[in-house]
Design brief:
Order of helices and strands: HHH
Shape: elongated
Number of domains: 1
Strand content: under 5%
Number of helices: 3
Helix content: over 70%
Number of strands: 0
Structural class: mainly alpha
Length: 79
Amino acid sequence: MSTSVSALSQSARPVRSSRPDPSNPEARLMKSVESVYPTERQIEFLHLHAEIDTLLLELKTIKQLREVEVSQKEVALTH
């Protein structure tokens, strides 16, 4: 990605609300991160969070593919 950290920090200024939505744990987490860490650390945290989400999605996809393979093998064995 060619966007510099300084450009990201300028465009990624957090919008501060009076209090986080209590029904959204991710919003509460982000509010706590915003209040404790400098902007550059917030950006790093958001990147890591996105990477974790991507990896979890990949794992879920792999698991689903394996389940399909197993069920196809079971069907082939019964015929």
